[in-house]
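Predict the assembly for these two chains.
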Amino acid sequence: MILKGTQIKKYFPIRKGIFLQTAGYVKALESVDFELFENETLGIVGESGCGKTTLGRVITLVYSTTEGKLEYTTPENQQITVGKKLDKHQTKLYRRDVQMVFQDPFSSLDPRMTVGDILTEPLNVHRLFPNKKEKDEYVQYLLERVGLYSEYASRYPHEFSGGQRQRISIARAIALKPRAIVCDEPTSALDVSVQSQIINLLQELKDKENMAYFFISHDLDLIHHVSDRIMVMYLGSVMEEGKADELFNHASHPYTRVLMKSIPHWDPKQRKLRKVHLEGEPPSPINPPKGCPFNTRCRDVMAICKKEKPTLSNISENHSVACWLYNIKG
Amino acid sequence: MSILQVKHLKSYFKTEEGIVKAVDDISFELRENEVLALVGESGCGKSVSAQTIMGLLKSPPAIVEGSIKYHGKELVGLSNQVYHKLRGKEIGMIFQEPMSAFDPLYTVGEQAAEAMEVHSNLNKHEIKNKIIAMFNKVGISEAERRYDEYPHQMSGGMLQRMLIALTLSCDPKVLIADEPTTALDVTIQAQVLNLMRDLQKEFNTSIIFITHDLGVVAELSDRIHVMYAGKIVEKADVIELFDDPKHPYTKGLLASRLKKELKGQQLPFIEGTVPQAFEFPKGCRFHPRCPYAMNICKEKEPEPTVFNNSHDCSCWLYAINHTSDGVDR
């Protein structure tokens, strides 16, 4: 195991008034448990506001947790708890081992740095390649690895398309040869024909470099393709979790089922969006509904759903669901 | 009946790097009551085509040549004042980013009413009622309260519905939708697509639907034009395009679909990247990425080969077997 999160909560305070008193919280994550194993892709899927990006940022230490514990197993098999108390040296090693590819390639690259600078910066911080010539060669190798020309090293991010910029982000993430990469919607800015190249590249890195991915996306087809295990999130909570095929073939949570039906089919003879019945939009995470977070839109809603929040429970060996339909007491 | 005819349309931009041929000699027609999809990747010219039809390109730096006929009336070269009367009233447009399509400083109601204030004779009160009715129609709950709220108080899905409502409030005959669901979640996308289909039937609007998402296209469109590097490379009815794609680029796009059966395997993909607009390759613009490229592809641009009256494709692979009959493109 590389990473283990236990009961992770992340609340963002909303401050109001001249004394900036806390007026409430945006409850981005509500007691999320997860495990990431070596050489595994854990797919996180959900709509905007479900907390998937927040979870990715908690893992990469962009945010600290409000509650809960994030544990990291070092390559030497040593368990450390990641968080504020961790010393600088270990934090740095953790950051080297767990990298991130951000969602928006337009804001994640410094417009005033050349691509070469962007790619050398992590190498300098971690003092890899003291020899300049080797460093330059490595940068060129990185660029070619992600499907760009090595001459691009002297250009600036604004000279590239969104897709190319995302490749630069990926090159930056793999520069330190991390053990795990948090990929936050890495292909949602890319063209369809290019998306496959990137997915193949990530897959190849996984196989050859023994990489693990924490893969965040709203695209179910994509998540199914890349993931070994999938977690479906809604309003800060995990609704369903399981092995990719198992979850796809036996989607059990009403939300997961609706989500699957909402993907446009690539078949004009079988138009099916008509059959999707999901009214309304996700409620605000400031005032999540009592009980199950999905109860406001669920077609199978029962009385208990509005009173008590269901917990994840196994319905088969590799598959668990947080829904009262499968979780009847006694 | 075609409502909009585009012939040999060129939209070029003068830049420091040279002339960018964003749209280079495309021809198509939009028929009444149909959804025509312009499909392609970033930089293929699909959005610029839309902006050209809307008369949104400023000259200079833009150079627009060719002809766009709306109900027989030539739009290319019209003055801004004349265009102003058409825009919104006859041809409406829905943009990709609902968040940036609205001005954050005005209420959504004020902004929705603006188009009608320009284009209709109704008084303020009537306009407000009409807008609220439209908001209700697109599924905005508590439309009256929402009318006086600001864009930041809405979700992306709601704003996109409002944008659709305000665009349709003037009852345009042609609606250009530029990636209207790209910024939305799948469940909301499904709602918006269903809504657009319903409204299209109700208002008898002809829609040019611009997208890169072939799944969305399969759900919504009647005909598809595939664009690559400023050119239309293939035109076909939706079912025929998915069943029998001709152009190697179309084939590549369709093959890059994520299929369940291919889980974990290498995905088929198109080599290389989309070329930059100021350095489009000579000959067929797809040839550097094309697995079937022949010598002639590097030299000469292919003409469309017609397969039937709704399906044609510009590729040398077919030009050899069929005689090119000089179809107007």
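The two ends of chain A are 34 Å apart (CA to CA). Residues 192-209 of chain A form the longest helix (18 residues).
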